[in-house]
Write a structure and sequence with these properties.
The complex is a heterodimer of chains A (255) and B (278). Chain A is α/β, with parallel strands linked by helices and 255 residues long. Chain A has ten helices and ten strands. In chain A, helix 6 packs parallel to helix 7. In chain B, the strands form two sheets. A six-stranded mixed beta sheet of chain B has the order 7-8-9-3-10-11, sandwiched between helices. The relative contact order of chain B is 0.16. Classes of the chains: A alpha/beta (255), B alpha/beta (278).
């Protein structure tokens, strides 16, 4: 933790609390992510990992706590355009996150128009190229695409605004293993090319250890511990829950 | 060796579409005894349609052909709907992927389990209730009496899937088809459900067809693995020999998984060859 604080911080969450009626979804969560870092969050369903990401993205309100992104602090309420240009999100289910009645062209056009970009035509063509889909996909509807292709479009839509931080909520858990590898490679390449900061949520420790440098383990709305991914391999962690997750990720064992 | 429990020979499932016919399953053959067989493949490889054809759940407009599709000497292609109903639930059970969708939302859990029993056995309601409670206990539900009266939305995913297993095993089937039984569950819960399934299958000496896209999981759970690609079997091998898989598709599936402690950037990607699906 100490080394990170001295570097430039891209995202800082302090004592964040999110409640839904009586239910406490996030309980005093603090996270610091350095610029250019790839930060992973693991935990089971209901542990609050998606809620944390959504609260950062402004899709959930948070009741108390502080949020700073790229040096600017934000409240729980409405955010300005600048925020959404800096922070973009890729969702879990590529079937649900693309508008079913818009063509790929329209999907990619909308963010550009909202943020007043120029060279729209060139940008859309380049964005499709970058995610490995040719111009042939530009005027298709999302139902004409496979799951992997849809997730590529979702990534293109996030990258087209040239954000600094990408929030990834289980970006590959709805995909086949072979497609997952392609998407992970694509994300890594994009991060390298653009010096992006990643915050990635997954329940798969294998994926997290491949993609991230540090990982936070969440349970019941709290961060149990934060460790560098090398510690997973060397088993240098203290929480019992981390061990459970690790055992589960190694597959079924008889007896 | 005795006659196998299930014989599938040259099974084909064809769907007519506006743009011509699509063969989802193209000539799949295997036999199954009292063992655990895994079927692995990507979405669209025909693995689920293979399972559904055995169970008799293929949609009405699709066409099934096979030179042989036999369960314990019964020709599954020629059975009447009545005979089918007698088999389903009683002698062949099927566990589906997501308990949120596969359990009846407006019927209590206990009632759903009893329904299976009463459909196949002539027993009194109180006896059915006792057996349902005992079955719930066997899938390690701590408070069967309470869960018996709950609706599916009142239990967690892991518990829902255990209820599903209980419902499928209560009539003591000889063959169980499990189609992605743990894919919708949390990793930590997956292992619990699998070990319950494993124990019950071993105790009762059933045949199990385990359908999944997760090659690692299947190989750690099953005795034998069939790998499917584009409606065909590309490789069949004992789970223990998975590391020696010969087909490039199987090798590719194994290699593309990120694991803890390996440093491979970028991950190897499957390169599909046209001749695999020929």
């Amino acid at each position: 933790m100490t080394g990170i604080m001295t570097e430039k911080t891209a995202l800082s969450v302090r004592d964040m609390i999110v409640t839904f009626d009586e239910y406490v979804a996030l309980d005093h969560v603090s996270v610091d992510v350095a610029t250019g870092e790839s930060f992973g969050i693991v935990g089971e369903s209901g542990s609050g990992k998606s809620t944390l990401l959504r609260a950062v993205a402004g899709l959930n309100r948070f009741d108390s706590g502080a949020l700073a992104v790229d040096g600017r602090s934000y409240s729980s309420g409405r955010r300005d355009k600048e925020f959404y240009r800096t922070v973009q999100m890729v969702f879990q289910d590529p079937y649900g996150s693309l508008h079913p009645r818009q063509t790929v062209d329209r999907l990619l056009l909308e963010p550009l128009v909202i943020h007043g970009f120029d060279d729209i035509d060139v940008r859309i063509a380049r964005a499709l190229d970058e995610v490995g889909l040719g111009a042939g996909f530009r005027f298709r509807y999302s139902h004409q695409l496979s799951g992997g292709q849809r997730q590529r479009i979702a990534i293109a839509r996030a990258l087209i605004l040239e954000p600094k931080i990408l929030l990834l909520d289980e970006p590959t858990s709805a995909l086949d293993a072979s497609i997952q590898a392609e998407i992970l490679n694509l994300l890594e390449q994009a991060r390298k090319d653009r010096n992006l900061t990643f915050v990635m949520v997954s329940h798969d420790l294998g994926v997290i250890s491949h993609m991230c440098e540090r990982v936070a383990v969440m349970k019941s709305g709290k961060i149990v511990e934060t460790v560098p991914v090398e510690a997973l391999e060397k088993r240098e962690f203290s929480a019992d829950y981390t061990r459970q997750l690790l055992v589960a990720s190694e597959g079924f064992r008889r007896g | 060796m005795t006659a196998p429990l299930l014989t599938v020979d040259d099974l084909r499932v064809t769907f007519p579409t506006r743009t011509g016919e699509i063969q989802a399953v193209r000539g799949v053959s295997f036999t199954l005894g009292k063992e655990r067989l895994g079927i692995v493949g990507e979405s669209g490889s025909g693995k689920s349609q293979t399972g559904r054809a055995i169970m008799g759940l293929t949609p009405g407009h699709a066409r099934i052909t096979a030179s042989k599709l036999e369960f314990d000497g019964i020709d599954l292609l020629k059975v009447t709907p009545k005979q089918r109903r007698d088999l389903r639930g009683k002698r062949i059970g099927m566990i589906l992927q997501d308990p949120k969708y596969s359990l009846n939302p407006v019927m209590t859990i206990g009632k759903q389990i009893i329904e299976t029993l009463l459909a196949h056995e002539k027993i009194s309601r109180s006896e059915a209730r006792d057996r349902a409670l005992k079955m719930l206990e066997q899938v390690q539900i701590r408070d069967p009496e309470r869960v018996f009266g709950l609706y599916p939305n009142e239990v967690s995913g892991g518990m829902g899937q255990r209820v599903m297993i209980a419902m499928m095993l209560i009539c003591g089937p000889e063959l169980l088809i499990a189609d992605e039984p743990t894919s919708a569950l949390d990793v930590t819960v997956q292992l619990d459900v699998l070990s319950i399934l494993d124990k019950l299958v071993a105790e009762r000496g059933m045949g199990l067809v385990f359908i999944s896209h997760d090659l690692r999981l299947v190989s750690s759970f099953c005795d034998r693995v069939i790998v499917m690609y584009a409606g065909r079997i590309v490789e069949e091998l004992p789970s223990a020999d998975l590391a020696q898989a010969k087909h490039p598709y199987t090798q590719g599936l194994l290699n593309c998984l990120p694991t803890i402690g390996t440093d491979r950037h970028p991950l190897p990607v499957l390169e599909r060859k046209v001749e695999w699906s020929a």
